[in-house]
Amino acid sequence: MKLFQVEKRGFFVFAAAAIIYVLLAYVVLPALWTHHEHEPGLASLPMVTHTGNGIPGDALNVGLVGSEADVLRAMEAAGWFPADPVTFRTSVEIIGSVVLDRPYRDAPVSALYYEGKKEQLAFEKPDGKSADRRHHVRLWQVLDKGSDGRPVWLGAATYDRGVGLSRYTGQVTHHIGPDIDAERDLLMRDLTSAGMVDALFQISGVGPTLFGRNGGGDPYYTDGEIDVASLVAGGVKRVGPPAMLPAPPLVALKDQIWHGVSDTISQ
């Protein structure tokens, strides 16, 4: 009888521990790390793009608040060039740029889709002579009116490190660098340095990811946050540094832990 009571008590302890674990791991902690307080309209949106074949593509990692004109002015001031559309002529030009190592700062980017829509805007920043290596970002307008009444854009910023074949389809494509947080930080830094940002804040993206793969099969890792820049209106440059709207304390702690992990990975 006593042994039965001990076993029964042990079962209840195990069951309670299992319930607590499930609640913490699958309900409480994900909820605490998910934050859209500065732009609540983004809370229900997916945070990954797709290729034309439906393969999960680049993760979203940047956001902009402002009209299309504000975005165009800000990106120009930051030194990022609008990408040409994909046509026969531009396809030939980008091949020539890569093969002959000659500049093409407006080179086209391949299409990605977000909720079935092709990117509305795309920009790039050359890294070297040819279009073989470049920083680039695709943008989609996801809200007509955000918290401050202006449109909200989400985007995927990545670094093209060279041309090769897709690991999934065998098609010719650019391969991206794995540290997509570095590309997010570069874009925000360039916009801020150009005086184009009124405020900066974070929202939740795909979440901490160590072994992600994009639509070409390239690996990437990220802390899973999206940095959002509220752009100046009308191209009027901000004189001082932008306002920094803080993330919740638990999210900030998670990011500190993550950056320690990612620094180890990148070494």
Cα-to-Cα separation, first versus last residue? 59 Å
Give the averaged pLDDT, no decimals.
83
Helix-residue proportion: 25-40%
The outline comes out as globular
Helix-and-strand structural type: alpha+beta
Bin the strand percentage: 25-35%
Detailed description of the structure:
The protein is α+β, with helices and mostly antiparallel strands and 267 residues long. It has one domain. The protein has helices at 2-33, 68-77, 88-100, 180-193, 249-266; strands at 48-50, 56-59, 62-65, 81-82, 113-114, 117-118, 121-126, 134-143, 152-165, 172-176, 197-204, 209-213, 219-222, 225-231, 243-244. Strands 3, 4, 7, 8, 9, 10, 11, 14 and 15 form a 9-stranded mixed beta sheet that branches. Strand 7 and strand 8 (134-143) form a beta hairpin. The longest helix has 32 residues, at 2-33. The mean pLDDT is 83.
Task: Characterize this entry briefly.
This protein is an alpha+beta fold and 267 residues long. Helices cover 33% and strands 29% of the residues. It has one domain.
